[in-house]
Each structure stands twice: as structure tokens, then as C-alpha cells.
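INFO  loader      accepted 1 record
INFO  loader      residues=104
INFO  predictor   begin
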Amino acid sequence: MAEPTSVQESSSVSEELQACLDYMRVDEDTDHRIENEFLPAAKAYLAGAGISEPSTTDSLYTLAVHALTLHYYDHRDAVGEEAPFPTGLRPIINQLKHSAAGCI
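INFO  predictor   done
INFO  writer      dumping C-alpha cells
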């Protein structure tokens, strides 16, 4: 018996976005803010930290993008004070920066 597909999987959602939605446990991106704002913002944050998007799959990079996207999504309505950075994400970013610099 075939596995049921979510609404997102049956539409024209990229594999990258679907993986991020699955990580976030979000059924669908109805207002497209995840696709158009949060996911690109996560990649831009990493790029600003000196971490380029890898040409091949890198599980640490993917985890960092998903965790940042979830963080932005969870705090999308926050006003007045900055939400704390996700626990465990800073060491992942440091590891990515060191590997990008050839330190590993």
C-alpha cells in the first residue's frame, strides 16, 4: 500500500522546502512565509557568518538552516525583545565555520 502524501508533497513544493517543513513539523506553508522569508533568511544569516551554501549535501548545514528557519517561524510575531538563540545551534555554526576555513 502506498504511503499517503501530504498536501505539500502533492503540490509543486521543492524537496528542500518539504524537508524543512518536515523538520519543523508544519503541514503546509499556506502563506508562503517559510519559503519566501524564513528559509532564505536562515541561509542569509549563515552566509553573513561566513558559511556558504555547500555544493553537495552537508547534514550540518542542512540542520543549521532548518533550525534557524524553525526559530524564525516560532518567533515570527515577537515584538519588543529578541528571542534567545536556539540551544545547540552555535556549536553547529562554529563547526561549519571551521570546516569552511579549512581548520578541520
